[in-house]
Amino acid sequence: MPVYKYKDFTSAEEALWEEKVDSSYLKRLDELYELKNYLHHIDYPKGIYKFVTLEDLNRFDENIIIKNALNGKIQ
Questions:
Q1: Which of 42, 47, 58, 69 is the most exposed place for a label (fewest CB within 10 A)?
Q2: CA 49/CA 7 separation, integer angstroms
């Protein structure tokens, strides 16, 4: 595996981008997201929720994650 040297972080980040976006790349990306959803699927209750603060939202999300984990829905 070759070793590359970069002058700054921007050029190192740019080197990570895929240059050829074709159907096989999009298929691999789709499979990756399917795997992510399979491994970390969270069932949120239906409805629209209003939160006053971000702390309230974070507390709600934590409770949903805990309930899903206790029910065996998160692997």
A1: 47
A2: 47
